[in-house]
Design brief:
Layout (H helix, E strand, L loop, with lengths): L2 E4 L5 H15 L4 E3 L9 E7 L2 E8 L3 E4 L1 H6 L4 E9 L3 E4 L2 E2 L7 E5 L4 E4 L7 E9 L7 H4 L6 E2 L4 H16 L5 H23 L7 H18 L8 H7 L4 H9 L5 H17 L9 H7 L5 H12 L3 H10 L9
Length: 330
């Protein structure tokens, strides 16, 4: 589960020292400084995914520096893959400078000195940091070092999938069973490896299993983006990803459901969300069904009842009256 920490209940003069100590403890020994030490309200969340850790930080602008002396005190041997939002961040490491990064990711290595800062633009910076053990990343260190302190795009491809994965952990991670967190850690490691390999043009260096998991993540992202297409099916999905239909079905056997079942489940989940959303109460049920690829109302109603035990209309009426209804598929 997430470990949530904040300093907002402390006296203003104690907020920055508390935060500086927290960052050094959760990342590694470093020096944090800021002109806003009089009041420094900040929040952090940390989630352990077996060997991988994910930490989300929300804080005012600050400057951070890690030296060789800090590294001698403690070297966790991890890369920090950081998704940046809010105010931009820059990182300088091994004579490489990221420039201002916002909306993308940047990588740095805690085994080497680095310096970074967030310019004061009157807003908090928000980062989600994935801490990856160097020995578990399936790429040679000399290649990975080319990417240190370089902006890594999250606009498309594996970068977009990894960024979405990291930012949704905050919403869904707390509900996961411990054994699921371990699986999420393995998935995070595969996505990180595929993302960095894509930026290095070194995809073939990845183990076959990592490439398979990366392909599965790409396919799942494609399905989610195209659920409204009533013609979405295995043939088109396979063609878009330049694999055979047989290979696509083999990928989905790892998930324990067929391609068609996965599409149907996700469409029903989107319909369920819309039917219980007060903002959608004026939209006809048939329009909601069509929005997510169900063109025949009778077919939609049967599938919905089979999944949730109630008709779409019954669910909507109960939601509008504030009655509790089951939220998951049977």
């Amino acid at each position: 589960m997430w470990l949530n920490v904040s300093n907002v209940d402390l006296p203003a003069r104690e907020q920055f020292p508390f935060w500086a100590e927290l960052v050094s403890r959760e990342l590694a020994p470093l020096t944090l400084s800021s002109p806003n030490t009089g009041s420094f309200p900040a929040w952090a969340s940390v989630l352990d995914l077996s060997s991988v850790r994910v930490a989300a930080f929300n804080s005012p602008p600050a400057h951070l520096k890690r030296t060789w002396a800090d590294i001698r005190r403690a070297d966790p041997g991890t890369y920090q893959l950081t998704f940046v939002s809010g105010t931009p961040l820059w990182i300088n490491q091994r004579r490489q400078d990221s420039g201002l990064v916002c909306g993308d990711m940047v990588l740095f290595d805690l085994s080497h000195p680095f310096e970074g800062a967030v310019p004061d633009r009157g807003r908090h910076t928000q980062v989600v940091i994935m801490q990856v053990p160097r020995e578990e990343l399936p790429l040679p260190p000399d290649k990975v070092h080319r990417l240190l302190a370089q902006p890594l795009s999250t606009r498309s491809g594996m970068g977009a999938i990894l960024a979405r994965f990291l930012t949704t952990l905050d919403a869904y991670g707390p509900d996961c069973h411990p054994r699921d967190l371990s699986r999420l850690g393995a998935m995070a490691l595969d996505l990180a490896g595929a993302c960095l390999a894509q930026h290095l043009d070194a995809y073939d260096d990845l183990p076959a299993e990592t490439r398979q998991q990366a392909m599965l993540a790409r396919v799942n992202a494609f399905i989610d983006h195209n659920l409204g297409d009533p013609d979405l099916g295995p043939t088109d999905i396979a063609a878009h990803h330049h694999i055979s239909v047989r290979s696509l079905h083999a990928l989905f056997r790892q998930q324990g459901e067929t391609v068609a079942a996965s599409i149907r489940r996700r469409r029903l989940e989107r319909c369920h969300a819309d039917l219980t959303d007060p903002r959608m109460r004026q939209r006809p049920i048939s329009a909601i069904a069509a929005r997510w690829g169900f063109l025949r109302p009778a077919d939609f109603s049967r599938a919905f009842r089979a999944a949730y035990g109630v008709t779409p209309r019954e669910l909507r009426q109960a939601a509008l009256r504030g009655l509790p209804m089951r939220n998951g598929l049977r």
